[in-house]
Amino acid sequence: MGLPGEFALIARHFRRLAGPAALDLKDDAAVLDPPPGRQLVLAADAMVAGVHFLAEDPPETIGRKLLRVNLSDLAAMGATPLGYLMTTALPPGTSDAWLGRFVDGLAADQAAFGLSVLGGDTVSIPGPMTLSLTILGSVAPGAALRRQGARPGDALWVSGTLGDGALGLRVLQGKLPGDAAGHLARRYRLPEPRLALGSALAGVARATMDVSDGLVQDLGHLCRAGGCGAVLKADSVPLSPAARALVEADPALLPLLLTGGDDYELLFAAPATAEAEILARAAAAGVAVTLIGGFVAGPPEVQVRGPDGAPMTLPAGGWSHF
Amino acid sequence: MGLPGEFALIARHFRRLAGPAALDLKDDAAVLDPPPGRQLVLAADAMVAGVHFLAEDPPETIGRKLLRVNLSDLAAMGATPLGYLMTTALPPGTSDAWLGRFVDGLAADQAAFGLSVLGGDTVSIPGPMTLSLTILGSVAPGAALRRQGARPGDALWVSGTLGDGALGLRVLQGKLPGDAAGHLARRYRLPEPRLALGSALAGVARATMDVSDGLVQDLGHLCRAGGCGAVLKADSVPLSPAARALVEADPALLPLLLTGGDDYELLFAAPATAEAEILARAAAAGVAVTLIGGFVAGPPEVQVRGPDGAPMTLPAGGWSHF
Questions:
Q1: Distance between CA atoms of A247 and B24, rounded to whole angstroms?
Q2: B235 CA: distance to closest CA in chain A (Å)
Q3: Could you list the residue ranges that cross the membrane (chains A, B) (predicted)?
């Protein structure tokens, strides 16, 4: 009796991603020894073709983006990756060649980030390709970074550069100049989860999250969780040279950088006195961090100040599906 | 600043499913203390409207089916449920009322099976509703039931009754007589994960899996994993009164019962000498089990014998997506 199609597909493509706990993807479930003396950290994200990625994106980057978006959630908790489960709903005609490249990308990122697949499911969908990934990580007991905890007077920090992903999407859509091989498009397709920085922030950051739905909207979450307001200085927000060039050519793009989403940088609150400590830890982690504002007493609102110090009004709060 | 739509939706519907480790679904990830001295068991399954459930199914049963399908994977490993993460890709127009009933169903099953939600994601899809669930459970170290291990001479057992789900789907599709309130339709919409039986089989079953893609196809997996063949006696396969009535009226339905899928019963191998022990443990777990054949030396093939003892030829091996 030969293997039916679905199982042959798993054997041909996904088995090479399996770690020891996955039991070669031949059983009903994985069996994993949890790391002794650690807490588990768990998150899940889904991506739909045409919503979260472009159907014509290179297959190699699609699975990697999904994995990295989930790794970014682990980074925001200060956790170390353990493994993941992935379900793929594939439209008719998804080719073997496409799947091979999709899995090649995942294999590269598994090696880069030190984790492997634990299990999953592969089904057919009469609609857009839909991928879902659940990630597992671990932290020392009580060391998980949380969104709650920002206090008035705390400094507001962000890692890396903002807005590249939002601009990169528009480059790929032909709405902005640039090409698919450039920095901005790459940042849209392959976000950089800040795992080393997340681990380094334990004990010094008071509140942390990753920026996925736009800086201003996500800062609102830190405000609500902390029960305080925040002031964001727009001209302090770190931009890549490619983003800066576009904004200098068209200053009307600035709001997009602050609200556009797809950044996957860490946004965090820390005592104002911890500036030197933060800079030293970030340097040791190999990630630039920038002071972009601070938390203030008052209602959980975000005040954005323009280059002249006056309040800026932004057209939209951030990305929402509904 | 008000909550954007996606977060309001999570607050309004999904938060009531959250257990303590879920941090009220307000953080980037859940933080879970793994049960001390246990191994983790992990599985994931996806369901697509029109493929795995009917878009017109009652919202209460759709989430419960997804949860139960995953719980069935835990049962097949002899594991105890811990929690789950769920991603929902919702088409435009999914109403608040629909979501309320969907979550009502999940809440009922969380109480029935003793677990709660750890996290997830809610996104929009320009296509059919697509749901993905990752389940976590635990087992005593080394006690997980595996698919490998069946040996020639072992008895072949199955729990409950077979074919109800496949017949129930056809009742709901109007292809067979019956109604949506009947036993068969209910078995299609709400499979019964055999968790108590799975736990009870540790130490006596040599190989175990759950029947999800059809009895004959899934028995083939046990054969390949064990490196032996199997003989299945078609007239020993346990049928519910409703299924038996349909097959007596139309004997041509028998192959469907053996290959149709959606059973979620446990299929297992055990030493022939363990018959009394198996029956006692199953009785204590409150589940009927039936001896339906045995394993034989030879290639990993399934021989189905009809009521006259002669080989039966079946039209299809089971359900595959590809």
A1: 38
A2: 22
A3: none
What CATH fold (topology level) applies to the domain A155-305? Phosphoribosyl-aminoimidazole Synthetase; Chain A, domain 2 (3.90.650)
Terminal Cα distance for chain B, rounded: 47
A250 touches chain B (CB under 8 A): no
Name the minimum distance, in Å, from the CA of B4 to any CA of chain A.
6
The answer to whether residue B320 neighbours chain A at the CB level (below 8 Å) is yes
Q: What is the pLDDT of residues B188-234, one digit of tens each?
A: 999 999 999 999 999 999 999 999 999 999 999 999 999 999 999 99
Which residue ranges does chain A devote to CATH 3.30.1330.10? 5-139
Query: Phi, psi (5° rounding) for residue A190?
Result: -135, 80
Q: Which helix (H) or strand (E) holds A81?
A: strand A80-90
A93 near B CB under 8 A: no
The chain A residue lying nearest B88, using CA atoms, is A46
Q: Which residues of A touch B322 (CB under 8 A)?
A: 5-6, 8-9, 90, 122, 124
Q: For B17, what's the count of Cα atoms within 13 Å in the CB-facing half-sphere? A: 29
DSSP letter for B53, please.
B
Q: Give how far B243 is from chain A: nearest CA, Å.
A: 27
ipTM of the complex: 0.93
